[in-house]
User: Fold this.
Amino acid sequence: MTTSPRPTKITANREKAELTIVWNDGHVSVYSFSLLRHACPCAECMGGHENMRRDPDPVVFYLPAEDSPRTRLHLIEGVGNYGLNIIWEDGHRYGIYNWDYLRKLCPCEACQREREAQGLVPDEETIAKEIERRMNPPKQQIQIEFTL
Ligand SMILES: [Zn+2]
Ligand SMILES: [Zn+2]
Assistant:
């Protein structure tokens, strides 16, 4: 049985807007904050629970980089010993990025070549649709009030 790689060091650099993970197998992943937000694994960002998946959607690697409160990192917290919770400046805080997910999200050239070899390359139409979907998020329909 192979055990999945685990981080030995995690560094967030707000100036560069980059998160760096050094893995215990020597691999180094450098994620732009923008990529991390695009790949937020929460149900809302994934378009509902039925679309929840374990692996990053390949389309996230092809979305345009963004610099806004959505993509500025406010805080990172460890979640148990299995992942990170990222809290963004716009208040979004629901994504739990586990180690396996983060490793599969590595945008380095070698990992990108591996994804291409597996055919994980979205076509132009899929990319365009995803950009459109993200620009027009569904409005929250449920109103919640405290009566006491
Ligand atoms: Zn999310
Ligand atoms: Zn990589």
